[in-house]
Write a structure and sequence with these properties.
Strand content: 15-25%
Order of helices and strands: EHEHEHEHEH
Structural class: alpha/beta
Helix content: 40-55%
Number of strands: 5
Radius of gyration: 15 Å
Largest sheet: 3 strands, parallel
Length: 152
Amino acid sequence: MAVGRTSIDFVRRGIDEYLNRLQHYLSVDVKIIPDVKRTASLTEDKQKDMEGAAILAAVQPSDRVILLDERGKEYSSEEFAAFMEKQMLSGAKRLVFVVGGPYGFSPEVYSRADGKLSLSRMTFNHEMVRLFFVEQLYRSQTILRGEPYHHS
């Protein structure tokens, strides 16, 4: 799940490439939450609250929700693969990874989250995070199956 459409063309093409590759391993559905258009009267907190309400409306009570967040847990690719394997074996109905908007998440979304994942201590454009994450999701599946992609 992500807030706002991916507007950068090369990023969108990369995401589509890895989503197509992932079809071989996992059922992946990308839900786009409409972003809130910034106006002079809309504070960052209000924008996060409005986006947060839309995120929470799209999440089911039985979902395991992981936020992609700069304060989340960092993994190596191998550790992330092990995390994914554990999640897939846990019996959770749906594992939902959420990429927020440019200002992050509301307190209510943080309260609902079952975990937080950081791709790096560096800050990335929220659209780029989508590409980096979907590539790592694909890489995790090749690691779990011992396929050569991980070493390319």
